[in-house]
Automatic annotation (TrEMBL):
Keywords: Glycosyltransferase, Transferase. Residues 41-189 form the Glycosyltransferase subfamily 4-like N-terminal domain. It comes from Polyangium jinanense. PANTHER family: COLANIC ACID BIOSYNTHESIS GLYCOSYLTRANSFERASE WCAL-RELATED (PTHR12526:SF640), GLYCOSYLTRANSFERASE (PTHR12526). This is Glycosyltransferase. InterPro entries: Glyco_trans_1 (IPR001296), Glyco_trans_4-like_N (IPR028098). Belongs to the glycosyltransferase group 1 family. Glycosyltransferase 4 subfamily. Gene3D superfamilies: Glycogen Phosphorylase B. Residues 199-361 form the Glycosyl transferase family domain. One of its GO terms (molecular function) is glycosyltransferase activity. Its EC number is 2.4.-.-.
Amino acid sequence: MSGQDPARPAVAFLLGTAFSFTETFLFNQMRSLTRYQAITLCHRVANEERFPWTEPRILGQRHPSRLGQALRPLHGRLTLDPAWMQALTETRATVLHGQFGTNGLIAAVYGKQLGLPVVTSFYGGDVGILLEPQKHLRRYWHYILGKRALFEGSDLVLVLSTAMRDDLVRLGCPASKIAIHPNGVDLERFSPVPRADRKGPLSVVMCGREIEKKGFSHGFRAVHRARAAGADLRVRWLPAPGPLGAPLRALIEELGLGPHVEILDPKTDPAVVMRESDLMLCPSVTAADGDKEGVPTVLVEAAGTGLPAIASRHAGIPEIVVDGESGLLYAERDEEGLATGLVRLAKDPALRARMGEAARQKVLATYDARKLAITLEAHYDALAALALRRALD
């Protein structure tokens, strides 16, 4: 196969789209591998300028319901995608890695057919679907009905936090299959800068898709409260396109925050914005349909630049933001609490500096992309050894 490196074993990543606009974490994970070559099996390519992928990529056939098709081989009735089958055979892939639970189900199908070990990575929303199945049956019924096959067919399940691990155990995934594997960041790109001598309003950054679980409406209302309480601050908002873009912009104007909110181009480099800011605000919530975060990558990136955070006590956030040490945590939708935190940190630059340093140290210890790539490849080694033992039995 063109582009294959014969010196490295291949791991095949199953994706729907390579890559969606906010999937920096996937791109970084896959390109950080050194001993394994990442082969991408997907149905759509997007954002190539943002994610310049140079390793082999195989486009499969599009059909109305990949998940529906995925369930059929459990009863022996699926014609597997010929392009993917050829790629898996030619590359002699040693491991299948399903990115998100939905693709993990498909990986389990191919793994069963080819005798390959399967790892499935969960990231948040895919767990929320299984936790609130009645709210997602129309769109994701194949995934929901395939939950047992997904857990049985995955040899390893990777999650971002203990909270996510506990959710999957409650859903029936064997705890023995689960390992916590955070999303890493490039700590050279997201590096700290001196902030002590900055003058002017406190610069607060918010980043993420314009969707409910990001909690931006609560963030803007908290900023409004904090300003009313005397805090001199401004917001730099780096949004990724989503369905709530127009309502959020209307809310900014309704609150009179227009002069105090800079809405950045989605293509703006977040590392630059974070280094130019003083504080990260991450007011995430559980959405009405059960959608929830894993551990927001933007929080990890911000911590890498030495930013303290004010955030919600939501999903895996407490595992990156230690309340009172590297930031301040409040209950979901607690706009008054968030505002209190903003006022407190706006008035105390020394506290911001201490918390920012603690945040950086936390990331150095736990979220370094290079160290996590070594750990991930060790998981692949163990799975390859498992496959060999199975073949010899």
